[in-house]
Design brief:
This protein has helices at 52-62, 146-153, and strands at 19-31, 34-49, 73-87, 92-101, 115-124, 134-143, 171-183, 186-196, 207-217. By secondary structure, it is mainly β. It has a 9-stranded antiparallel beta sheet with strand order 1-2-3-4-5-6-7-8-9, with no helix packed on it.
Protein backbone atom coordinates (compact mmCIF):
# COMPACT_ATOMS: atom_id res chain seq x y z
CA UNK A 1 0.00 0.00 0.00
CA UNK A 2 1.09 3.60 -0.62
CA UNK A 3 0.24 6.92 1.09
CA UNK A 4 -2.64 9.15 0.06
CA UNK A 5 -0.22 12.07 -0.50
CA UNK A 6 3.54 12.41 -0.80
CA UNK A 7 5.28 11.07 2.32
CA UNK A 8 1.95 11.15 4.15
CA UNK A 9 1.02 8.98 7.17
CA UNK A 10 -2.27 7.59 5.79
CA UNK A 11 -2.63 4.76 3.27
CA UNK A 12 -4.73 4.89 0.12
CA UNK A 13 -7.09 1.91 0.45
CA UNK A 14 -8.03 1.88 -3.24
CA UNK A 15 -5.53 -0.93 -3.90
CA UNK A 16 -6.74 -1.39 -7.47
CA UNK A 17 -5.22 2.01 -8.30
CA UNK A 18 -2.80 2.69 -5.41
CA UNK A 19 -0.04 0.12 -4.90
CA UNK A 20 3.68 -0.60 -5.02
CA UNK A 21 5.15 -3.65 -6.76
CA UNK A 22 8.75 -4.73 -6.15
CA UNK A 23 10.86 -7.56 -7.55
CA UNK A 24 14.34 -8.46 -6.31
CA UNK A 25 16.76 -11.02 -7.71
CA UNK A 26 19.97 -11.79 -5.82
CA UNK A 27 22.88 -13.90 -7.04
CA UNK A 28 25.88 -14.93 -4.92
CA UNK A 29 29.31 -15.40 -6.48
CA UNK A 30 32.83 -16.29 -5.44
CA UNK A 31 36.12 -14.76 -6.61
CA UNK A 32 39.25 -16.62 -5.46
CA UNK A 33 37.46 -17.77 -2.34
CA UNK A 34 36.03 -14.34 -1.54
CA UNK A 35 32.24 -14.28 -1.43
CA UNK A 36 30.08 -11.61 -2.99
CA UNK A 37 26.47 -10.96 -3.93
CA UNK A 38 24.72 -8.92 -6.62
CA UNK A 39 21.15 -7.64 -6.26
CA UNK A 40 18.86 -6.38 -9.03
CA UNK A 41 15.64 -4.67 -7.93
CA UNK A 42 12.80 -3.30 -10.03
CA UNK A 43 9.80 -1.36 -8.77
CA UNK A 44 6.53 0.10 -10.02
CA UNK A 45 4.50 2.53 -7.91
CA UNK A 46 0.99 3.59 -8.85
CA UNK A 47 -0.67 6.38 -6.89
CA UNK A 48 -2.41 9.76 -7.16
CA UNK A 49 0.85 11.59 -7.85
CA UNK A 50 1.58 14.96 -9.37
CA UNK A 51 3.63 15.50 -12.53
CA UNK A 52 6.59 17.93 -12.56
CA UNK A 53 6.27 19.01 -16.21
CA UNK A 54 2.50 19.48 -15.93
CA UNK A 55 3.01 21.61 -12.82
CA UNK A 56 5.55 23.80 -14.67
CA UNK A 57 3.20 24.25 -17.66
CA UNK A 58 0.25 25.06 -15.38
CA UNK A 59 2.33 27.63 -13.49
CA UNK A 60 3.39 29.27 -16.76
CA UNK A 61 -0.26 29.67 -17.78
CA UNK A 62 -1.25 31.27 -14.47
CA UNK A 63 1.94 33.29 -14.03
CA UNK A 64 2.65 31.66 -10.66
CA UNK A 65 5.14 29.21 -9.18
CA UNK A 66 4.36 25.58 -10.10
CA UNK A 67 2.37 23.61 -7.54
CA UNK A 68 2.62 19.87 -8.05
CA UNK A 69 -0.33 19.19 -5.72
CA UNK A 70 -2.64 20.73 -8.35
CA UNK A 71 -1.70 18.08 -10.93
CA UNK A 72 -2.46 14.90 -8.96
CA UNK A 73 -3.89 11.95 -10.88
CA UNK A 74 -3.41 8.19 -10.69
CA UNK A 75 -0.23 7.40 -12.62
CA UNK A 76 2.95 5.30 -12.45
CA UNK A 77 6.52 5.78 -11.29
CA UNK A 78 9.08 3.08 -12.07
CA UNK A 79 12.76 2.48 -11.49
CA UNK A 80 15.52 0.00 -10.68
CA UNK A 81 18.40 -0.62 -8.29
CA UNK A 82 21.71 -2.44 -8.79
CA UNK A 83 23.80 -3.26 -5.73
CA UNK A 84 26.80 -5.40 -4.90
CA UNK A 85 28.63 -6.61 -1.79
CA UNK A 86 32.17 -7.98 -1.95
CA UNK A 87 34.09 -9.61 0.89
CA UNK A 88 37.77 -8.74 1.16
CA UNK A 89 38.40 -11.45 3.72
CA UNK A 90 37.25 -12.04 7.28
CA UNK A 91 37.71 -8.42 8.40
CA UNK A 92 36.73 -6.14 5.50
CA UNK A 93 34.21 -5.70 2.71
CA UNK A 94 33.17 -3.38 -0.11
CA UNK A 95 29.65 -2.32 -1.03
CA UNK A 96 28.12 -0.29 -3.85
CA UNK A 97 24.64 0.69 -5.03
CA UNK A 98 23.11 2.56 -7.98
CA UNK A 99 19.46 3.56 -8.21
CA UNK A 100 17.32 5.30 -10.84
CA UNK A 101 13.68 6.26 -11.33
CA UNK A 102 11.91 7.94 -14.24
CA UNK A 103 11.68 11.25 -12.37
CA UNK A 104 8.53 12.46 -14.12
CA UNK A 105 6.09 12.16 -11.22
CA UNK A 106 6.68 13.52 -7.75
CA UNK A 107 8.71 11.64 -5.19
CA UNK A 108 6.17 9.68 -3.19
CA UNK A 109 7.96 8.53 -0.04
CA UNK A 110 11.06 8.91 2.12
CA UNK A 111 13.29 11.44 0.33
CA UNK A 112 13.63 13.39 -2.93
CA UNK A 113 16.24 11.51 -4.96
CA UNK A 114 15.90 10.39 -8.60
CA UNK A 115 19.38 8.98 -9.21
CA UNK A 116 21.92 7.89 -6.63
CA UNK A 117 25.28 6.13 -6.42
CA UNK A 118 27.23 5.16 -3.35
CA UNK A 119 30.24 3.02 -2.54
CA UNK A 120 32.06 2.26 0.65
CA UNK A 121 34.32 0.09 2.77
CA UNK A 122 33.75 -1.55 6.15
CA UNK A 123 36.43 -3.09 8.37
CA UNK A 124 36.38 -5.22 11.49
CA UNK A 125 38.47 -4.26 14.50
CA UNK A 126 40.67 -7.37 14.29
CA UNK A 127 43.03 -5.30 12.13
CA UNK A 128 43.90 -2.98 15.04
CA UNK A 129 43.43 -5.45 17.88
CA UNK A 130 39.81 -4.73 18.88
CA UNK A 131 37.88 -7.62 17.37
CA UNK A 132 34.45 -6.41 18.52
CA UNK A 133 34.80 -2.92 17.01
CA UNK A 134 34.15 -1.95 13.39
CA UNK A 135 34.56 1.12 11.19
CA UNK A 136 33.53 2.27 7.75
CA UNK A 137 33.62 5.03 5.18
CA UNK A 138 31.28 5.77 2.26
CA UNK A 139 30.74 8.28 -0.54
CA UNK A 140 27.29 9.14 -1.92
CA UNK A 141 26.28 11.27 -4.89
CA UNK A 142 22.59 12.07 -5.49
CA UNK A 143 20.89 13.69 -8.49
CA UNK A 144 17.49 14.89 -9.69
CA UNK A 145 15.79 14.20 -13.01
CA UNK A 146 15.61 17.10 -15.53
CA UNK A 147 11.87 17.60 -14.86
CA UNK A 148 12.37 17.58 -11.09
CA UNK A 149 15.21 20.12 -11.16
CA UNK A 150 13.25 22.38 -13.56
CA UNK A 151 10.25 22.27 -11.23
CA UNK A 152 12.40 23.44 -8.29
CA UNK A 153 14.20 26.04 -10.40
CA UNK A 154 10.82 27.58 -11.30
CA UNK A 155 9.98 27.97 -7.60
CA UNK A 156 8.19 24.69 -6.93
CA UNK A 157 8.31 22.88 -3.60
CA UNK A 158 8.41 19.20 -2.67
CA UNK A 159 7.87 17.64 0.74
CA UNK A 160 11.59 18.11 1.54
CA UNK A 161 13.11 20.34 -1.15
CA UNK A 162 12.44 23.91 -2.23
CA UNK A 163 14.20 27.28 -1.98
CA UNK A 164 11.96 29.33 -4.26
CA UNK A 165 14.66 28.80 -6.91
CA UNK A 166 17.48 26.35 -7.55
CA UNK A 167 21.12 26.68 -8.52
CA UNK A 168 21.41 23.00 -9.35
CA UNK A 169 24.41 20.83 -8.49
CA UNK A 170 24.92 17.21 -7.52
CA UNK A 171 24.49 16.52 -3.80
CA UNK A 172 27.59 14.77 -2.44
CA UNK A 173 28.06 13.20 0.98
CA UNK A 174 31.11 11.61 2.56
CA UNK A 175 30.51 9.70 5.77
CA UNK A 176 32.76 7.85 8.22
CA UNK A 177 31.95 6.04 11.45
CA UNK A 178 33.60 4.11 14.24
CA UNK A 179 31.66 1.66 16.41
CA UNK A 180 33.31 0.69 19.72
CA UNK A 181 32.05 -2.22 21.81
CA UNK A 182 32.61 -0.78 25.30
CA UNK A 183 30.84 -3.55 27.21
CA UNK A 184 29.47 -6.97 26.15
CA UNK A 185 25.94 -5.51 25.86
CA UNK A 186 26.73 -1.90 24.91
CA UNK A 187 28.41 -0.22 21.94
CA UNK A 188 28.90 3.43 21.04
CA UNK A 189 29.17 4.79 17.48
CA UNK A 190 30.67 8.13 16.43
CA UNK A 191 29.62 9.27 12.96
CA UNK A 192 30.81 12.24 10.88
CA UNK A 193 29.36 13.52 7.58
CA UNK A 194 30.44 16.19 5.12
CA UNK A 195 27.71 17.37 2.72
CA UNK A 196 28.46 19.32 -0.46
CA UNK A 197 25.57 21.09 -2.27
CA UNK A 198 22.89 20.02 0.24
CA UNK A 199 19.43 19.76 -1.33
CA UNK A 200 21.12 19.97 -4.77
CA UNK A 201 21.72 23.70 -4.40
CA UNK A 202 25.26 25.04 -4.94
CA UNK A 203 24.20 28.20 -3.08
CA UNK A 204 23.96 26.10 0.10
CA UNK A 205 26.82 24.71 2.13
CA UNK A 206 29.03 22.89 2.15
CA UNK A 207 27.95 21.52 5.53
CA UNK A 208 31.07 20.25 7.28
CA UNK A 209 31.25 17.87 10.22
CA UNK A 210 27.70 16.77 10.90
CA UNK A 211 28.54 14.77 14.02
CA UNK A 212 26.31 12.18 15.66
CA UNK A 213 26.70 9.80 18.56
CA UNK A 214 24.63 6.64 18.87
CA UNK A 215 24.41 4.13 21.69
CA UNK A 216 23.27 0.53 21.18
CA UNK A 217 22.16 -1.81 23.96
CA UNK A 218 21.62 -5.55 23.50
CA UNK A 219 19.65 -7.36 26.19
Amino acid sequence: MVPTYANGPYFDHDIARAYSLNLEVARPYNISGLEGRVHVIGFLNHAAMGNYRSAIDRGALTGSAPDIDRTNSYCSKYGFVLSAEQSLGSTAGLFSRFSWNDGETETWAFTEIDRSFHAGLTMGGDVWGRKDDNAGVAYVVNALSPDHRDYLAHGGYGFILGDGALSYALEQITEAYYCARLFPSFSLTLDDQVVINPAYNRDRGPVVNVLSLRGHVEL
